[in-house]
Amino acid sequence: MTKTDNQQQSAILVTGGAGFIGSHVVRHFVQKYPGYRIVNLDALTYAGNLENLRDVEHAQNYVFEKGDIRDAALLNRLFEKYRFDGVIHLAAESHVDRSITNPLAFVETNVLGTVTLLNAARDAWKNNFEGKRFYHVSTDEVYGSLGEEGYFTEETRYDPRSPYSASKAASDHFVRAYFHTYGLPVVVSNCSNNYGPCHFPEKLIPLVINNIRQGKPLPVYGDGQYTRDWLWVKDHATAIDVIFHEGRTGETYNIGGNNEWKNIDLVRTLCDIMDELLGKPAGTSQQLITFVKDRPGHDRRYAIDASKLKNELGWEPTVRTEEGFRETARWYLENEAWLQHVLSGEYQRYYEQQYQ
Ligand code: NAD
Ligand code: DAU
């Protein structure tokens, strides 16, 4: 979809816009494209939080619709009401540990939900796909696990190893199948680990920051030598913008941070940053580090080769990690009310079960 396509009338459906990445994507599009109408469809599960969008909730070009992507009748009504030109699909169950305890929830939302959404777009656009675009936001975890060397490219064979990544892989396959079978104009991206404000504190970085605040143990799975490639979440939002507007239909783009960290090194760095921000003696928070039972099927290393995106569309990450980690830690310290609200009863139950 190009920006010149009827910019004044464009209506974009963003699913999962109240979640971590979705809220940054919604804000980015609402602020950058006043001529677009951005409709955020979100079921507000434990991970969805409208507080993430407080600063844009009254914007003229923003609408929130509460609902489930598995609800075909609702989707049909929304396509009829808003006449969407594009879909940016982020709604998902996103946490690997939860997928290990409840895989079916991941099949329900990530697979069934995605296919229901694909059907709605195909039927609403009635095979006249001119100017339309269905953008599916996916993960590098579909590629499986790397050894010490090498990178995931767009050609890497799918090899998902957790129920989460298997469900995302299945959804990616369905999206591509709708391109080949029905001609639906799709584009897919597979991104590495994001971090930044509004990250739900079940995930490693916000969990560590929050536990340091509370003086609680910092659980590091296994030997701590697992590696992830971390990307500043607002850089992901700009990559999605570029791919949505300029990516080639039917193509896949990998997105990454060029920024590999072993978990234990990352946790130690966060400890040092937090000591500094909290005015504690150096080394205080590192004493909280606790090695715990490993995650079953834990992927050893992810690393993205994002050269296709750079060479074709000119996108590159902009934020240096230590600066991003510091800004993230500061955000959590300055937004205690946000943290208190998400650390609700449901979170406490999850935490006790996961780390008992
Ligand atoms: P998140 O868990 O923070 O947010 C998911 C959002 O989807 C929530 O607002 C939730 O309420 C909503 N949702 C869940 N089920 C729904 C349903 N059935 N109907 C409507 N809404 C529903 O997730 P995130 O970390 O922001 O990830 C967003 C997307 O990006 C996901 O598709 C994920 O697979 C992908 N992704 C995430 C990362 C990462 O590091 N977090 C990296 C690469 C790709
Ligand atoms: O790679 C992209 C993926 O990144 C996204 O698709 C997922 O939605 C997102 O949740 C994330 O998955 P990870 O499993 O990599 O993220 P998580 O923050 O759960 O874990 C990061 C690493 O830290 C991983 O190696 C597991 C480890 N870990 C995690 C937790 C929660 C710990 O050592 N201790 C913990 O308590």
What does this structure look like?
It is a single chain. This protein is an alpha/beta fold. The protein has a domain at 5-193 and 232-257 and 302-319: Rossmann fold, CATH 3.40.50.720. 43% of the residues lie in helices and 16% in strands. The strands form 3 sheets. Strands 3-2-1-4-5-6-10 form a 7-stranded parallel beta sheet, sandwiched between helices. Strands 7-9-11 form a 3-stranded mixed beta sheet. Strand 5, helix 5 (163-182) and strand 6 (186-191) form a beta-alpha-beta unit. The N and C termini lie far apart (48 Å). Nicotinamide-adenine-dinucleotide (NAD) is lined by residues 15-16, 18-22, 42-45, 47-48, 68-70, 90-92, 94, 109, 113, 137, 139, 168, 191, 193-194, 200. Residues 94-96, 139-141, 192-193, 203-204, 207, 219-221, 226, 228, 263, 295, 302 line the site of 2'deoxy-thymidine-5'-diphospho-alpha-D-glucose.
Briefly say what this structure is:
The chain is of the alpha/beta class and 356 residues long. Helices cover 43% and strands 16% of the residues.
